[in-house]
Amino acid sequence: MSVIEQSNAPVADQSTEPSPWWRQAVVYQIYPRSFADANGDGLGDLPGITSRADYLEELGIDAVWLSPFYPSELADGGYDVADYRNVDPRLGTLEDFDEMLDALHSRGIKVVVDIVPNHTSDQHVWFQEALTAGRGSPARERYIFREGKGEDGAQAPTDWESMFGGPAWTQVADGQWYLHTFAVEQPDLNWASRDVRDDFLRTLRFWSDRGVDGFRVDVAHALTKDLTEPLPSRVDLEKLPFDGNHPLVDRDDVQEVYAEWRKVFNSYDPPRTAVAEAWVDKARVPRYASPEGLGQAFNFDLLEADFDAGQFETVVRENMELARVSGSSSTWVLSNHDVTRHATRYGLPHPVREPNGHPSVKHGLDWILSGGVTPELDRVTGERRARAATLFMLGLPGSSYLYQGEELGLHEVATISATDRQDPTFFRSGGVDLGRDGCRVPLPWAASPESAFGFGEGGSHLPQPDWFGRYAVATEEDNPDSSLSLYRRALQLRRTLQTGEQLEWIDTGHADVLRFRRPNGWEVVTNFGTDPRLIESDGVLIATNEMTDGMLPGESTVWLAPRHS
Ligand code: NOJ
């Protein structure tokens, strides 16, 4: 049996210093508008979260991350923020926020909030001011305004496309154009402006003073830009290397912003934490995760991987190494509010991949476009693999990020009509991409469809399908074989098992079986194939499917007790 050791344990691990809470936390992402609706207006809210604090405690998570709950016109599900230091009145008040924070803190759950620094909403007072103040004004300096090209400047400054489809520039009444990397309603801020920088420092202090424990930083790689003329065309832009000098993304100078943020984080006791959403070349991830910067960065590799032993092993090896380089702990994600839920992904054929290994289109897109008809979704396989992948992930060193509803084994909803859709991706792609609404459908709490399956008295802002009742909390709660019961048991167990951040790979002799050992001898084995495999062990701690005569069934994960010999 060959053993290969990987470790990203910081030097501090050898001392008696307790490890900071975030290094190996299980963080549960709440998409507030779809979690629980206390005031019956069809939209989830902060009192709704408070009312479910016991549920969160029982689940056994360490922290929640709240997607934006700030005032917003909802052009991009709240990622178009109109006021960074307030609560959307439809979701509650600042007092409701404080109550929610107390309810979670008193149950030992930390709270991470989403910060959206690349762009504001077009309803933000700054953008409204920029529109009226006119060209050359200090108000326009906070955004990226340029003159158009051609006669009368009637053509956009460049042919760049926004991430949601369509042009990245929009013209305002006096003829100037503003840049928006995302929707028209999300004008990009100008991070060369001291005003912009100072205002975000105020925002970080505002929430930190209220007791927030950390921040999830939206599109952390895109803030600083070099828009010196002449601006490159889209084709030229695509040829430029991502070496820290790219005009639009992952510039070295974005770290100057985070160095300032770090000073704010470290002025609190305990220091506030941050995790970067940075879509950058792997080798550059440690910059964002470094202790001088944001401190941790998302790794989305598991979320892009097939249910495949080779791919999972590569992802773990690479990301453990990246974490070692930065000194941070690794993060792991299988689902979030931007992708097809993993129970569904794993029940669909593997996506076609580009030479760089990335899926060529969003996994599940064809299935969503067909209204959930073709290719046929194998729900049972999807759920079985989802549980196996989750238990594998929860056994890894570092932080696991869960997305609301995945603990129920919930599937993506593909049956949302065009009139019900909300995601700007749908509108800006002309319906070519149906967007991300299918993973944002409000959670089923009760088995019966009344009161939107217990979501709230006022219906559900995205339609819930009939089958949601089968996945409701109430349905699963008392069933020991449910996904929810598995998550609860695994999270409890993880708390007792998780120690140092090391991992030792153990050769299993089977290409489709991965096995690793953690510091106190606890082992994790996943059989990615379909044939049962004989696994030597001295006792099972938890398994996604029962082992008989030492055989681990296909598409299953088991956690094993430490070996005696
Ligand atoms: C990333 C967020 O996860 C996504 O939901 C949002 O649309 C974009 N950033 C733009 O803010």
Structure in words:
With 565 residues, this protein is α/β, with parallel strands linked by helices. It is built from 18 helices and 18 strands. The protein has a 7-stranded parallel β-sheet with strand order 9-8-4-3-2-11-10. It has a 6-stranded antiparallel β-sheet with strand order 1-12-13-14-18-16. It has a 3-stranded antiparallel β-sheet with strand order 5-7-6, with no helix packed on it. A hairpin with a 6-residue loop joins strand 12 and strand 13. Helix 6 runs parallel beside helix 8 and helix 14 packs parallel to helix 18. It is globular and about 80 Å long. About 1% of the residues have low confidence. Bound molecules: 1-deoxynojirimycin. 1-deoxynojirimycin (NOJ) binds next to loops.
Q: Order of strands across the biggest sheet?
A: 9-8-4-3-2-11-10
Q: What is the count of β-strands?
A: 18
Low-confidence stretches: 8-14
Shape: globular
Proportion in helices: 25-40%
H/I helix tally: 18
- Output the radius of gyration: 24 Å
Structural class: alpha/beta
Biggest beta sheet attributes: 7 strands, parallel
Mean pLDDT, as a whole number? 95
Strand content: 5-15%
Keywords:
18 helices, 13% strand, 565 residues, 18 strands, alpha/beta
Question: What is the topology?
Answer:
Layout: E1 3-7, E2 26-30, H1 46-51, H2 53-59, E3 63-66, H3 94-105, E4 110-115, H4 125-133, H5 138-141, E5 145-146, E6 169-171, E7 177-179, H6 194-210, E8 214-217, H7 234-239, H8 254-266, E9 273-276, H9 285-289, H10 301-304, H11 309-326, E10 331-333, H12 342-345, H13 365-369, H14 379-394, E11 399-403, H15 424-428, H16 450-454, H17 473-477, H18 483-497, E12 502-506, E13 513-517, E14 523-527, E15 533-534, E16 540-543, E17 551-552, E18 556-560
Parallel strand pairs: 2-3, 2-11, 3-4, 4-8, 8-9, 10-11
Antiparallel strand pairs: 1-12, 5-7, 6-7, 12-13, 13-14, 14-18, 15-17, 16-18
This protein binds 1-deoxynojirimycin.
The site of 1-deoxynojirimycin has 9 residues, from loops.
